[in-house]
# Entry
Amino acid sequence: MTTRAKVLIGLGAYFGLAILMLLVFGSSGKNEAFQPQNEFKLEPWVSIHLGGIDFSINKAVLYLVLASALTIGTMVWISRRMQQKPNRVQTAIEVSYDLTKNNITGSHLDPKTAARWFPFLAALFFFIWFSNMIGFLPLPTNTEHEFSIFGLQVPAFALYAATANLSIPLALTLVVWVSYHVEGIRAKGLVPYLASWLPPGLEEMNPIGKTFIFAIEAISHFARMISLSVRLFANMLAGHLLLLFMGGGLAVLLGIAALGALTFPLAFFFFVLEVGLIATLQAFIFSTLTAIYIGGATSASH
Amino acid sequence: MEAFGDIAGGLLVLAQTAPGSEESGGSFLVSPGLGLMIWTLALFLFTMWVLSKVAFPKIQEALDKRANAIRESIEAAERQRHQSDELLEEYRQRLSEAREQADDIMARARRAAETAAAEATAAGKEKREELVAAAKRDIEAETRRSLEQIRKEVADLTVLATEKVTRRSLTAEDQRRLVEDALSEVDFTTLSGSSS
# Structure
């Protein structure tokens, strides 16, 4: 059998099953009760309010704690048993450590600045990476739906990622944003640092023009705050929404069972894509952009 | 066709509900919570602190140690290779020296053997010649002695014969002279053959 025939048969079975299911089950109408966005809703599990701020422990806090514990646990565990001849886990950690050390930090910062900011950038990378990765482990966190194991009510298993909540990337972005300005001011002084925002070649420009350009640059710095946080947040949220819809959410929402047959194989594809690429890529991009921002703030020329 | 209409409708519903009301809408997705941000900050800073105090220095130390070990072993390997190159060169030199010496010894031995053979040949020849010469001398001496003997006996016989013929004896002196005269006319060379 030729490859072409195999592909055709496969596609035929794929669409045939969907059509068959459409004929058998038909459409049961729109499902108004299912709210897919509630998968990302944060129910306060332990309500804590201090000074008007809601510190309630919820799913996102659990994921953050898990990410922190996993990051610390893995790195400390590996660092305590570093072997001259590494096993696979150690090799993986060494490769990622090398990535943060030489690629993310080393290639965007001068050696002195790199030495000072390496722990921050590496911690950012590993923290975000573990946050992203545990977002693809089904954990019993969905308190909206519970099921019973020998009478014990267990929350339904669900996928969730702390980074798919805007607060978390935004908090990290704020740290980055403040850090690179502070580093820039420390390296150059306040006025020279602000002056360095202007691109070179504007020395002859009149003050109004300079002010205008400076305003644009200032806006671009604030835009970084949004772009950096929203990039991570939106990527992770979109990934999880895709998994949710492809994994059956769309079929449930629209009440068309046949749609599930079409989308379900895609869920596997997106899952592999998310775990294999997006989770690492977004952690890498976040920490690399941070390094670039710090490098831009401290380098002699803009 | 109905199904596609439903899909489009469903997506429309999603789009409408996204910025919708508190309970069913999705606005909480994009509204940051200060408490959660502070949780994030605290946990991230704690993670960073632990990593930078405990994990990173040890990993760096181990990596440096390995890098040093690798550099040292490369250097050691280079040193050893250098040494073995030198040794090899030395051995080659020694080998060629030994070969030269062997050739030399062989040549000398051959020469010595040739010399010895030549000497032996010469000595043999000399000896043979000596022997031959000695034999010749002996033969000549023997011949001469035999001739003397013969001559003496002939003389004596002649004297006896003459006495018998003449019935008188000549003085010994006369006799001797006569015999000598006679004998000198006889050619004895025929007796001694070709060895005269």
Notes: The first helix of chain B runs from residue 2 to 17. The mean pLDDT of chain B is 81. Chain B touches chain A through 49 residues (CB under 8 Å).
